[in-house]
Write a structure and sequence with these properties.
Helix content is 30%, strand content 26%. It is of the alpha/beta class. The strands form 3 sheets. It has a 7-stranded mixed β-sheet, with helices on both faces. Strands 1-4-5-6-7 form a 5-stranded parallel β-sheet, sandwiched between helices. A two-stranded antiparallel sheet has the order 2-3. Helix 1 packs across helix 9 and helix 2 runs parallel beside helix 3. It is globular. It binds ribose-5-phosphate (R5P). Ribose-5-phosphate (R5P) binds next to strand 11 and helix 6. Ribose-5-phosphate binds next to strand 11 and helix 6.
């Protein structure tokens, strides 16, 4: 049986879902994804999904809990409507930073959310730039884990065509070294690390820059910019150490709390993010913030999953 593709979107990132659907040349499926008057999520899949290869596109960005519920309730509805297979496409996976016990008697919420998703009837997950790759193992179903590196690499290659020898990729903390190293490989350039110590959640203190950044055009690479503390402090430390300029390539623009003010007032030349999370109207007004789309990459991955082809070639 040829199970045709059907794509549905939750409410977290409809613009991205629409872009993906245009790349795939598959119309978004009809679904009511709303709330009852008491606030409960209300879902009604209005297209026939019996025997279909269903892709639900939903970033679990803020309001995170609500968007998780939309995703799992949509999956439940598709499963009960006899979909052949259900893939949750979650370009941004919320709760990813709660992936281990950070103190006694704290939860591992990323694992709990993975269990909830699996219990809802999702057969596989397509994620992008997870905070740590080990989160794949939280799911007992297949997880394809894409990276935004190809999207950023294309942009920065055309932006800095001739500064290769002057360029330096920087990880804003020790945990992000692998990600930054992969980007440094693309540019065939060196790597520096900012030694970040965090006293409180959502607060960061830059302690030390490891590597010679003097005279370098620095590119900070990270998975998430949330309050902007890590990024703007790292950028300031790099300039203090003699970097000539600092840009950043960060996949998920969470941008909560003081982020926008911090970024606007920072020494950063440019912050390049993806559309894994839609930008707020205020974020769109900040000229330093540029958004690149993941839609083509995600559409290719969806097509390959549907055709049972390799997805790993998209990692390069
Ligand atoms: C932390 O390990 C992450 O990779 C990000 O660096 C962090 O979540 C960014 O948070 P904030 O923008 O609030 O400093």
């Amino acid at each position: 049986m040829d199970a045709g593709i059907q794509i549905f979107s939750g409410n977290s990132n409809r613009p991205l879902a629409e872009r993906i659907s245009r790349h795939l040349d598959v119309q978004l499926g009809k679904a009511l994804v709303d709330r009852f008057s008491d606030g409960e999520t209300r879902v009604e899949i209005q297209s026939n999904v019996r025997g279909s290869d269903v892709f639900i596109i939903q970033s679990t960005c803020a309001p995170v809990d609500h968007h998780v519920m939309e995703a799992v309730i949509m999956a439940d509805a598709c499963r009960r409507a006899s979909a052949h297979r259900i893939t949750l496409v979650t370009p941004y996976f919320g709760y990813a930073r709660q992936e281990r016990k950070s103190a006694p008697r704290t939860p591992i919420t990323a694992k709990l959310v993975a269990d909830i998703i699996t219990a809802s009837g999702v057969d596989r997950v397509l994620a992008l730039e997870l905070h740590t790759s080990a989160i794949q193992g939280f799911f007992n179903i297949p997880v394809d884990h894409l990276f935004s590196k190809p999207v950023f690499a294309e942009y920065f290659k055309s932006k800095f065509p001739s500064v290769k020898e002057n360029m330096l990729v920087v990880s804003p903390d020790a945990g992000g070294v692998e990600r930054a190293r992969a980007m440094a490989k693309v540019f065939n350039c060196g790597l520096a690390i900012v030694d970040k110590r965090r006293d409180q959640p959502n607060e960061s203190a830059v302690m030390n820059v490891i590597g010679d950044v003097k005279g370098k055009q620095c590119l900070i690479v990270d998975d998430i910019v949330d309050t902007g503390g890590s990024l703007t402090k790292a950028a300031a430390a790099l300039i203090e150490q003699g970097a000539t300029g600092v840009s950043a390539a960060i996949s998920h623009a969470v941008l909560s709390g003081p982020a926008l003010t911090r970024i606007e007032n920072s020494v950063l030349d440019e912050l390049v993010v993806t559309d894994s999370i839609p930008l707020s109207i205020d974020a769109e007004k900040i000229s330093k913030i540029k958004q690149l789309t993941l839609s083509e990459l995600l559409a290719k991955a969806i097509r390959r999953i549907h055709n049972a082809e390799s997805v790993s070639s998209l990692f390069l």
